[in-house]
Design goal:
This protein is an alpha+beta fold. Helices cover 40% and strands 19% of the residues. It starts with a helix and ends in a 16-residue tail after the last helix. Bound molecules: phenylalanine. The site of phenylalanine has 11 residues, from strand 7, strand 9 and strand 10.
């Protein structure tokens, strides 16, 4: 019995891991283990022999069992220590670096104006950038000979030789979305349509691709007063500047009657653009009451319905809001410029938090 004790206590002490320890347990005190077999021999002994051997064997079994348990606990502790040592994490380290990219001011302004018009009950509509001349011109009451076609410096798509159909164009404004929305949803309508537009023009305030947001509200009793209120409300919320001064100028568009253009007072001194002061005016939008012929072309009865429409230059209002004096910088992809004027990716504009947090 002393040999058995010596043997197992040594083996238990030297065992390397929990799996080997389990094997040892089976080998010693398992059903067919060495100590268990010895206990079975008790039955063959005389009562006197059994009186001595029984308690001694039981004591041996208890001793081996508690050695097994103690070793098991110490192996588990060691395993935990090892995991703690290898898996530690310094929770006081600074967080992840914010991604290097920024949101382009145009995208930011796009989100801002969408949030403002959404709060006024406008939903967002879309149309294609490559447009038929019907949607871009004719349906908007701009016939083929009309000078507006030339004034808009249109980019025409190339047709195959011998194909005499009128060419498609890169849309020169977002107004074709007016017609598409009328066709798609009928009256009443309250939509905005932000998007890219194209004209062959290039200077400090013009680039061949730029952005507009179209607005269209059609109902039974919409008037010029609603138009004026909506645009003033939009500008006040968007610019977040007290004393934004708007100038409504009588104008002419083939697709609205009457028509007005809106300028904003600004100063342009020393290479910086400032809003709400100065003696300069920057034109930011065209607007008016939708022409009856346009309603008709969109399948809406002008005797029953009327409405207003406007087209705002997104790039222009972005220049004004963020003091960017040259439109062309928007599209130069100059990294230093983008880092300076860009917005953090998580800076989502909303009305509750203040738009340009
Ligand atoms: N489509 C006009 C432009 O691009 C703007 C406009 C839109 C004017 C809607 C009146 C009504 O200049």
């Amino acid at each position: 019995m002393d040999d058995l004790r010596e043997k197992y206590l040594t083996l238990i002490k030297d065992v390397a891991d929990e799996a080997a320890l389990e094997e040892l347990r089976v080998q010693a005190v398992g059903k067919k283990g060495e100590i268990s077999l010895k206990m079975r021999e008790l039955g063959k002994m005389t009562p006197e022999e059994r009186q001595v051997a029984g308690p001694a064997l039981n004591a041996l079994k208890d001793e081996v069992n508690s050695a097994l348990n103690a070793r098991k606990a110490s192996l588990a502790d060691a395993a935990l220590e090892e995991r703690l040592a290898s898996e530690w994490l310094d929770v006081t380290l600074p967080g992840r670096r914010r991604p290097a990219g920024t949101i382009h001011p145009i995208s930011q302004v796009w989100e801002e104006l969408t949030a403002i018009f959404a709060s006024l009950g406008f939903s967002v509509a879309e149309g294609p950038q490559i447009e038929s001349d019907w949607y871009n011109f004719d349906a908007l009451n701009i016939p083929g000979h009309h000078p507006a076609r030339a004034e808009m410096d249109t980019f025409y798509m190339h047709r195959e030789d011998g194909d005499n159909r009128p060419p498609h164009v890169l849309r020169t404004h977002t107004s074709p979305v007016q017609i598409r929305s009328m066709e798609a949803q009928g009256a009443p309508i309250r939509i905005i349509a932000p998007g890219r537009v194209y004209r062959s023009d290039y200077d400090q305030t013009h680039t061949p691709m730029f952005h507009q947001v179209e607005g269209l509200a059609i109902d039974k009793d919409i008037s010029m007063a609603h138009l004026k209120w909506t645009l003033e409300e939009f500008c006040r919320t968007f610019f977040e500047v007290d004393g934004v001064e708007l100038r409504f100028r009588a104008s002419h568009f083939p697709f609205t009657e009457p028509s007005a253009e809106v300028d904003i007072r600004c100063s342009w001194q020393g290479g910086t653009l400032k809003i709400g002061e100065g003696d300069d005016w920057l034109e930011i939008l065209g607007s008016g009451m939708v022409h009856p012929k346009v309603l008709q072309n969109g399948g809406i009865d002008p005797k029953e319905w009327q409405g207003f429409a406007f087209g705002v230059g997104i790039d222009r209002i972005a220049m004004l809001k963020y003091g960017i004096p040259d439109l062309r910088a928007f599209f130069d992809s100059d990294l230093r410029w983008l880092r300076h004027y860009g917005f953090a990716a998580l800076d989502q504009p909303d009305l509750a938090g203040g738009l340009s947090r």
